[in-house]
Amino acid sequence: MIKYLGSKRTLIPALTLLGQASGAKTALDLFTGTTRVAQAFKKLGMTVTASDVASYSECFGKTWIELDSTEVDHAKLEEAIAELNALPGEAGYFTEKFCIEARYFQPKNGEKVDAMRRHIELEYRDSWLYYPLLTSLILAADRVDSTTGVQMAFLKGWASRSANDLALRDPELLPGKGFSVRGDALEIAKDLPHVDLAYLDPPYNQHRYFSNYHIWESLVRWDKPDTYGIANKRLDARDAEMKSPFNSKKTMAKALTSLVSDLNCDTMMLSYNNESWLSREELLDLAATRGHVEILDFDFKRYVGSQIGVFNKAGERVGIPGAKRNIEHVVIAGEKATVKKMVNSIK
Question: Where do the structural domains in the chain lie, given as residue ranges?
């Protein structure tokens, strides 16, 4: 799985217990990101719908949630991966933008990404292999990048892992059925089918995932956009329509209230953070519209970038390191007996 700000990796064991205790057969992961939570629910045997506005997230959903590993030809996937790994590197857009103009990857690996991505588009665009191969390529690139985990900047000196040779691996598909839906949560929530359990992990500050992971967005879209700034972000990251109401303190509360109201589910789980713009009490009040509410708190170490601080291109510190730990809130709302059973599974 890629390095991802806001990833629920450390929360997965608890969310798995909660999902199991809910008795849900169907589930929705509405801000799915890397699909970690959706995958955990799928492993429990649920039919899961994974949704996000990002193209790279849709790619992950098409790979790990929508595909059923029991119904695909694994030999063909292995052959395609071997074929791509054997391609000689050939510099193109990716190498120029993310290895030369910006130093996220060493050129030898950028050239491999360019060659592989072109081949995937030409040979596999209409095949079921398309998304698994793209997912494998993103994972491979993530293993040899030179960042702290987000693509707002790159390290002054090369990360040691960046010297490794890029190589695709089997993305390890999962058994079971599911769905991947790309769209704005506020626009699609009310039209999605009813589920037993809906999980929400909305943005909770001004940082936008579209900018934080712009390289993966461009790699999946393969639209070779114009870029700006030291980080070579997509130019369309500046567009007004790319700004979410969840990234503004003025609009976030209203957006979340509307979303919670539109959910078509029996039980809701909402992850939020003590660094967000809503207090613990406000979260409880907001969720109370869906029935009985309880809240669980989890203490976690923050991601490495926040502990290191912020540096400019010359390697000079220009920002102050943030707090080393934060509190993750999991708000559960629904029928009282179900909510109690879920909470008791953790205690």
Answer: 1-51+184-203+255-347, 73-161+209-243
